[in-house]
User: What shape does this take?
Amino acid sequence: MAKSGLKKELGFFTLLSIGVGGILGSGIFGMPAIMAAVAGPALILAILISGIITFFLGIAYAELGSA
Assistant: This one.
C-alpha cells in the first residue's frame, strides 16, 4: 500500500520564495508613505533595485539551505 501524506522536503524554489518573501514583505508594507515622501518618484526604482539584490540573496540562502 502506498504511503500518502505530505512530503517533508524544502526545495530550491521553496526556500527562495521564503527568503524573498521575508525580506521584501517587511519593507514593502512597512512605511510606504514615508518612503514615498523621502524618495519621491525614485521609490519605484529603489524598490526594483532592492528586489534584484534580494533575489540574489535569496538564491544564496536557498543554495545553503538545500545543501
